[in-house]
Amino acid sequence: MYRIDSMYEPMVEALLSARSESRADRWMACAAFWLGRQQIYNVPDYWLALAAKITSGLDAADKDAILDQLSNKEAALVSATGDWPEMPSSLQAVVVGWSPEPIPVDLYAYAAIKRYAVETGGVVIDGMRVMTDRQSQSLITGAYNYVQANPEVTVKFKTAAGFVELTAAQMTAIANAVGAHVQASFAAEGEVDKQIIAGTITTTTEIDAFAWPANTAA
């Protein structure tokens, strides 16, 4: 990022950004001539050639207003302008340093985070909100094993809304629904990884838009 106490760095960035959009405005010509006269970044010839090219494309009133302020040498550049000048490599290196390329996102790690959020986000079973964080999964598994060994008992079970009393059949249904939800979450992550490898998923937005399992169950 350029320094906030520098006048010419944001000027350079704004000028080059406008140039990349193929714009040719009076302010651009003025800025480029100033940069050339000040020999900013030791590339005065580039700035003056850029200023001359911009000036040559202005309407008559703006062009004349600038020509009136130029030296004979600068005015001659406007008259002899040709193609857009090529940016010197030294200047390119400086500008790139202001806005470095963003660090690539690890799509596989992002998919794993997304899966974990879906997996542990809870599930609604017959209108009852059941927590599916890792601790709740363990408790559900323990309760399921208990009722399998003791099918005549009822169990106290804590949902997101509070305690309920469940029969062995109800506890089994919950355990199966939670297990299915967890497996579906991992299966979805596996499919996302395949599509990342295939190149059909290339962004985090596409990962979010994938058909992840809903937090509801029959």
Detailed description of the structure:
It comes from Rhizobium lusitanum. This is DUF4376 domain-containing protein. Residues 107-209 form the DUF4376 domain. There is one protein chain. The model has no long low-confidence stretch (mean pLDDT 90). Strand 3 and strand 4 (162-167) form a beta hairpin. 60% of the residues lie in helices and 9% in strands. The strands form 2 sheets. The chain has a 3-stranded mixed beta sheet, covered by helices on one side. Strands 3-4 form a two-stranded antiparallel ribbon. The chain is mainly alpha-helical. Helix 8 (134-149) crosses helix 9 (168-198).
Name some characteristics of this structure:
rod-shaped; DUF4376 domain-containing protein; 2 domains; two-stranded antiparallel ribbon; DUF4376; mainly alpha; 218 residues
- Unreliable residue runs: none
Shape: rod-shaped
Distance between the termini: 53 Å
Number of helices: 10
How many strand elements? 5
Query: Using only CA atoms, what is the Rg?
Result: 33 Å
Protein name: DUF4376 domain-containing protein
Domain DUF4376: 107-209
Organism: Rhizobium lusitanum
InterPro entries: DUF4376
